[in-house]
Each structure stands twice: as structure tokens, then as C-alpha cells.
Task: inverse folding
């Protein structure tokens, strides 16, 4: 039986001119509505609110991530790719999505991919590239993090990974622990 998977994707690092580019992918199945509610509750509880990662205070970011990684349904479903000295952002994003979906437990699936800020003109191109990599994609859509808690989660995972890789000690400690526990999974590094 074919399962439906949903990918929520965000990226960060274009401001570094490719020195460090991070893509985060959150993969969900039928539990996505429940996860949305849980993430929204954590946003309120942590004080992060619906703000983007970069517009939140450091202590609220950390409180948010500490709670998110405790959600059992997200274990192994928070994926990231970090590339260095590579400026083909779309290629790296497609590669991260494909790698994340390949980690999915279900062998047969069809994916809906929602990418923060993806222009409508790029949707078809991304879908085609994913299909060329053998990823069964139903549709690819641009999304806005202001409207969906799971896109905001992808934004937060991106910021979290970037902060850890850039050496922020409190984020690095939590990141290393979660990678070791396979809650957060790396899908490729260049």
C-alpha cells in the first residue's frame, strides 16, 4: 500500500554566499495535524510564538527546540543537510529532500513537498528534479512559515542546525545529543 508523506522544508545560509548552506526537512505522515497542534502549543509555551527563528530570542529558541525534540512522532523525522562552499541552493535543497524521504520507513510512498518561500515558477522544476532522482512526488508547493506550524518547525530546525554548526555552545550541546539519539538526522554533507 502506498503511504502519503508530507515534507516541510526550509533553508538558511544564502547570506553566507555558499560558505554554509543548511536545508531542514520535517517528514510527517498521517499524524501531521496532531504534530501541528503540538508544535503550536510549544510555540506558545516556550514564548517563541509564531515568529521566525531569527526574530526569536535565544532563550526562547532553545526552550522551543528542547520541547520539540521530546515529541516521539518527530524522532528520526527531523532531517538536515549541511553543505559547504557550494552555492547551487536549489540543487542542495532537492538533494536534502530526496535524502530525507529515502530515510522514511515506508518503502512505498507518495510525497507532498511544501517549501518555505518557493516561488510558484520553481515548483514544477523541483518536482521534476525529485522525480529524476527516483522520488515519487505527488506535488511540490511553496509555503509561508506565517501560516503553518510545521513550516515554522522546519525554519526552527534550520536555525538550530546552523547555530550549532557555527559554534553556539548551548545549541551545539543539544544538537550533538539529538544527532547521537537519531532524533535529528543528517542526510548528507559536502
Result:
Amino acid at each position: 500500500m502506498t503511504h502519503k508523506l508530507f515534507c516541510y522544508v526550509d533553508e538558511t545560509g544564502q547570506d553566507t554566499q555558499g560558505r554554509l548552506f543548511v536545508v531542514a526537512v520535517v517528514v510527517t505522515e498521517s499524524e501531521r495535524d496532531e504534530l501541528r497542534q503540538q508544535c503550536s502549543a510549544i510555540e506558545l509555551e516556550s514564548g517563541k510564538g509564531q515568529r521566525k527563528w531569527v526574530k526569536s530570542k535565544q532563550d526562547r529558541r532553545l526552550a522551543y527546540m528542547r520541547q520539540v525534540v521530546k515529541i516521539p512522532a518527530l524522532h528520526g523525522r527531523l532531517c538536515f543537510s549541511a553543505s559547504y562552499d557550494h552555492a547551487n541552493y536549489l540543487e542542495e535543497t532537492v538533494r536534502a529532500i530526496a535524502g530525507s524521504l529515502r530515510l522514511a520507513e515506508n518503502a512505498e510512498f507518495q510525497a507532498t513537498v511544501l517549501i518555505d518561500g518557493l516561488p510558484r515558477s520553481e515548483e514544477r522544476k523541483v518536482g521534476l528534479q525529485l522525480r529524476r532522482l527516483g522520488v515519487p512526488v505527488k506535488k511540490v508547493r511553496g509555503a509561508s512559515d506565517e501560516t503553518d506550524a510545521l513550516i515554522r518547525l522546519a525554519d526552527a530546525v534550520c536555525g538550530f542546525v546552523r547555530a550549532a554548526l557555527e559554534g553556539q555552545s548551548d545549541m551545539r550541546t543539544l544538537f550533538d545529543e539529538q544527532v547521537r539519539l537519531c532524533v535529528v538526522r543528517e542526510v548528507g554533507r559536502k
Notes: The chain has one domain: 3-189.
